[in-house]
Write a structure and sequence with these properties.
Order of helices and strands: HHEHHEEH
Strand content: 5-15%
Helix content: 55-70%
CATH superfamily: Winged helix-like DNA-binding domain superfamily/Winged helix DNA-binding domain
CATH class: Mainly Alpha
Distance between the termini: 33 Å
Number of helices: 5
CATH topology: Arc Repressor Mutant, subunit A
Shape: globular
Structural class: alpha+beta
């Protein structure tokens, strides 16, 4: 993969992650597979909204589903995704507790 292709793919990944609820879903899935109803309970969002965001994440190859009886358990496609999101959340929360420096 050349550099431009890598940048484009990274941009698409970041676009897929660019919604707070999707970040929450990825954070939940970092702990292990979850069914939609478990994500609804954990995140307090309505089921149709969780399902809509899962569709976006599936389309971006961030999550995949595996049948678990009558349900589908969603999990992350790889651990890199969880680290990207955890680092972004950590960075964002660190930045909010420190005043911005002029010239940095």
């Amino acid at each position: 993969m050349d550099t431009d292709t890598g940048y484009i793919a990274a941009g698409e990944l970041l676009k897929a992650l660019a919604a707070p609820l999707r970040i929450g879903i990825v954070t939940e899935l970092a702990a292990g597979p979850r069914c939609v109803h478990e994500l609804v309970d954990a995140l307090g969002a309505p089921q149709p909204l969780i399902s809509q965001h899962l569709r976006v994440l599936r389309g971006a190859n961030v999550v995949h589903g595996a049948r678990r009886g009558r349900e589908i358990a969603y999990s992350l496609t790889d651990d890199h995704i969880a680290r990207i999101v955890a680092d972004a959340v950590s960075h964002a929360t660190e930045g909010s507790s420190h005043p911005a420096r002029v010239g940095s």
